[in-house]
Write a structure and sequence with these properties.
It contains 1 helix and 10 strands; from the N terminus they run αββββββββββ. By secondary structure, it is mainly beta.
Length: 149
Amino acid sequence: MKRYTILALVFGFVTAFTSCSLDDDSNYIGNEIIPIESVEIPDHFIFGESYEIEITYNRPSTCYQFYNFLYEINENERTVAIINSVYNNSNCVQEEESVTVTLNFLVTETETYLFKFYQGLDEEGEDQYYLVEVPVLNERPTSDAILLD
């Protein structure tokens, strides 16, 4: 009896997880990397602090939905791209729309970070990146301003 209960539970879990999968959606086409249009990033980081980096891209239509970031680490170099899930749906609005998403970044190194934000392909099919170097400070800078009464 115990064996049949376990088999029934396993069957139930498998059925539940496969029936709700996005991959089974007949409208799902796949994922696509989308070029980044602009980035709002601080001019410096403080070691140990967390930052929200705002990244804007142009979504080709409402059939494109933000999925995740492609995020690669190589020492203090970070390569960032936008991944959208693409759906085939007759209700999609075929109009480009500017979308801003936020990348949460925790500063774990004391060296300057080099960010490479993917901007698409050039005429020769080579990847193009917007490069940003962000130095890391050990502590917040103190203000040299003098307040007068």
